[in-house]
Write a structure and sequence with these properties.
Elements (H helix, E strand, L loop, with lengths): L1 H17 L16 E11 L2 E13 L6 E9 L2 E12 L4 E10 L7 E8 L2 E9 L5 E12 L2 E9 L6 E10 L2
Antiparallel strand pairs: 1-2, 1-10, 2-3, 3-4, 4-5, 5-6, 6-7, 7-8, 8-9, 9-10
Length: 175
């Protein structure tokens, strides 16, 4: 009897998903980031030069609507661990990038950024706070020159007019 109930329950699950629209074609653009990536490069924070390493693991959610990426980062000796969620939102016709911090960033202040994808270039633009708590802006650009190699640049600005590069590097998809 239990087996019959389980089989009947499982048979109803496809009916739940049947009412949802098919996946938007915009999700395909996010697929290049899935997998394991290692990033390296240089930083300049507060006028001090340094280096960074990001170890990123990305995979799709079970419903294929969210690309989830776990990061273990070293920003010139400062350790940061975070979870990133990238997605397409059909209502506002935009890509979105959300980053939640467990180590090295405040849990009350996740980073949210509207993201554009044009060809092989991803650009995230979000509000942030500088070291003194003043509103600032962060722009992160990823340029994929192949499915396994990307150039990344992070810039900050107090007014979205004058941008200062604070991170510059490359990423390589791992086998």
């Amino acid at each position: 009897m239990r087996l019959v109930l389980i089989a009947a329950t499982l048979a109803t699950f496809p009916a739940f998903a049947a009412d949802f629209p098919p996946l938007a074609p915009q999700f395909k653009a996010l697929d290049v980031q899935s997998g394991h990536w290692i990033y390296h490069g240089s930083t300049t924070f507060d006028g001090k030069p340094g280096t960074f390493t990001w170890d990123e693991h990305c995979s799709w959610s079970s419903n294929k609507l969210f690309l989830n990426c776990s990061f273990d980062n070293d920003w010139s000796g400062e350790k940061v661990q975070s979870e990133v969620v990238d997605s397409w939102n059909a209502k506002d016709q935009a890509y979105w990038h959300y980053e939640f911090f467990a180590v090295g960033g405040g849990g009350a202040d996740p980073f949210a950024a509207k993201m554009t994808i044009q060809g092989n270039t991803w650009t995230e633009l979000g509000d942030d706070k500088d070291d003194k708590g003043n509103k600032s802006y962060t722009r992160i650009s990823y340029v994929y020159d192949s499915p396994t190699h990307v150039t990344v640049k992070l810039e900050t600005s107090p007014d979205q007019k004058a941008w200062k590069t604070v991170l510059d590097g490359t990423g390589a998809k791992q086998p």
